[in-house]
Amino acid sequence: MPVVTIQITREGSGPGRDAATKEEKAALIKGASQLLLDVLNKPVNSTFVVIEEVDTDNWGWEGMSITEYRKLQRDGKK
Amino acid sequence: MPVVTIQITREGSGPGRDAATKEEKAALIKGASQLLLDVLNKPVNSTFVVIEEVDTDNWGWEGMSITEYRKLQRDGKK
Amino acid sequence: MPVVTIQITREGSGPGRDAATKEEKAALIKGASQLLLDVLNKPVNSTFVVIEEVDTDNWGWEGMSITEYRKLQRDGKK
Amino acid sequence: MPVVTIQITREGSGPGRDAATKEEKAALIKGASQLLLDVLNKPVNSTFVVIEEVDTDNWGWEGMSITEYRKLQRDGKK
Amino acid sequence: MPVVTIQITREGSGPGRDAATKEEKAALIKGASQLLLDVLNKPVNSTFVVIEEVDTDNWGWEGMSITEYRKLQRDGKK
Amino acid sequence: MPVVTIQITREGSGPGRDAATKEEKAALIKGASQLLLDVLNKPVNSTFVVIEEVDTDNWGWEGMSITEYRKLQRDGKK
After folding, report:
1. Does the annotation mark D15 as catalytic?
2. pLDDT class for E55, splitting at 50, 70, 90?
3. Which residue ranges does the record assign to the 4-oxalocrotonate tautomerase-like domain (chains A, B, C, D, E, F) (predicted)?
4. Does E64 contact C30 at a Cβ distance shorter than 8 Å?
5. Domain boundaries, chain C
6. Distance from CA of E49 to the nearest CA of D (A)
7. Does chain B reach chain D with at least 3 CB pairs under 8 Å?
8. Which of A30, B63, C48, F16 qualifies as a FRET site for B1, CA 20 to 30 Å off?
């Protein structure tokens, strides 16, 4: 009966994308369910996976938003 | 001081609806607050209820997204 | 596929008890599952309920811990 | 390695605004990171902050939604 | 910057154990971090994993606690 | 009506302590409530703070548990 919650920023994982794709989400769901089966013998039909996408303005690291953090990275300051 | 978090998929509970209605959400809030009062004597003014609606692409069960799961159900495969 | 998370302080609901009883927890589980069935037609076998009990030192309200808050209540200051 | 999750209703903190601003979110992130540094010596580069904004229809208090609650306040009934 | 939260019941995955072992937890952490790297290119040093173990009295499914559910299973009624 | 959840590892912030103290928790509660008041004008009597302490075996970073991570730090490998 596990619940796996995956919180990620709403960003693309490559050029031209601005969020995780359906395929990536499906891979996260499949992989997380498989992990619980492999490690703890939890049948996949008893595992829930919830993906929460968080705006980069709403996620903080190092005391600043990820929006700001990414800007510093693009400017070569991170 | 309870907090009740209700996570549901963003789907309608009947034909022609694609999400929980305001009335359904109000009923969840009222019912959850009443439950804490009935069972644990928590006054309703000390209970918070938070409803989180999750896209069907972002919710997984049986190793697949609910989007996919609903499709199998419509095709009679579930 | 709902998940209902109920966060409560670890306190008894009456004299001589210092935490929710098994019976009270069972009533919360039953009631929350029933609520989702009644309001959104969610079958009870698709609803998870998770009860999180939090020490009164770890729960804050009005800028103080519930441990402190209860003391003020006992002293008639709340 | 702390994670601070701040759940707020999606409302403006003053006239003419209907949600927390970027500046307010940045202040929450900065303040929460600083708090963990001040109190527990957690370096700011090990603290994540996640801000979750919840629609007023989806947040309940006193057995009703905040949408309803705000209406009663505007009508002078709260 | 992902956070992966894995909620499981506090039960052993085999005879003679009553909770997930250190090794199983380490495998969950490693696997979840790897999953985020594989699917979304998230470096492992930016992923947090939090495992929450929940007493079987505090987890509900099908309207009953997992304590009760396991008893029905042992009695061949599930 | 904010809820601030602070997840930390169960570790002392200095020598001779193995968990956050009552005073540190009280400071987190007070500081988080004050932050919401300062930034978003939320009255302290409408803010809940929940502190979740997580065993170092149950928290992962860089693909390993914090138990392991601390060991590497003590050995000068981090």
Report:
1. no
2. very high
3. 2-68
4. yes
5. 3-74
6. 10
7. yes
8. C48
**Residues A5 and E11 sit within 8 Å (Cβ to Cβ):** no
| Residues of chain C that touch chain F, judged by Cβ-Cβ distance less than 8 Å | 7, 54, 57-65, 67-68
| CB-nearest partner of C33 from E7, E60, E67 | E60
* DSSP result, B22-57: HHHHHHHHHHHHHHHHHHH---GGG-EEEEEEE-GG
How far is residue C61's CA from residue C69's CA, in Å, rounded to a whole number? 8
- More confident call, C55 vs F1: C55
**Chains A+D touching (3+ CB pairs under 8 Å):** yes
CATH of C3-74, picked from 3.30.429.10, 3.40.50.620, 2.40.30.30, 3.40.50.360, is: 3.30.429.10
- Minimum-distance CB partner of D64 among B26, B52, B53: B26
- Cβ atoms of D51 and D25 within 8 Å: the answer is yes
* pLDDT of residue A9 exceeding 90: yes
| Model pLDDT, residue D14 | 79
Proportion of chain E above pLDDT 70, given as a percent: 100
Q: What is the pLDDT of residues D13-40, one digit of tens each?
A: 878 899 999 999 999 999 999 999 999 9
ipTM higher than the 0.85 cut:
yes
Amino acid at E47: T
> Among A22, A34, A53, whose Cβ lies nearest the Cβ of B63?
A34
Yes or no, beta carbons of C47 and E65 under 8 Å apart = no
Q: CA-to-CA distance for F76 and F42, rounded, in angstroms?
A: 44
- E49: helix, coil or strand? strand
